[in-house]
Amino acid sequence: MSTNIRIQRVCQYCGTTFTAKTTTTAYCSHKCNSRAYKEKVKEKKIEKSNKETLEVKVKPIEVLKAKEFLTVKEVASLLNCSVRSAYYYIETGKIKAVNLGQRVTRVRRVDIDKLFESTEAQPEEKKEQHFELSECYTISETLEKFSISEKALYEVIKRNKIPKIKQGKFSYIPKSIIESVLS
Ligand SMILES: [Zn+2]
């Protein structure tokens, strides 16, 4: 059966609407196709370079990992947070520390490891939670309700490991969770 179906698609490179012959055509023209390809190659190169940079940066961390007792500054670099935050975690008891004297606070590295053992278990629990779509906001509803930018919202979702429920082309976020985080 040959039908002359004209499919309207949006070019993934330049964003213009074009008439496609198949439902999988991604680009409006050969030009956009090759430009997109070139960009992908470039991105891969950047990614590779970033990875190499990270490996160089990671080495001092390896040294810290070998230490049994850490200073607060070392804790901060190991956790990739500020020294101030590290002190805050210690003060609030999130990180166990011993105060040996003024400015001599030491943290056992194993206690830092334990910290992750307990947080690693968390996403598992969250996975088991089930949310009805009626208990959720869409992304745009959330943006409107809390008047934040999309970028900020995704940052919040990522940082708080908020579950996203994908349904068709929409993503849903549980109302109760986003409300407790953003209110
Ligand atoms: Zn195009």
TrEMBL record:
Residue span(s) of domain Helix-turn-helix: 69-118
Transmembrane segments: none
Domain of life from the UniProt record: Bacteria
Protein name per its UniProtKB record: Helix-turn-helix domain-containing protein
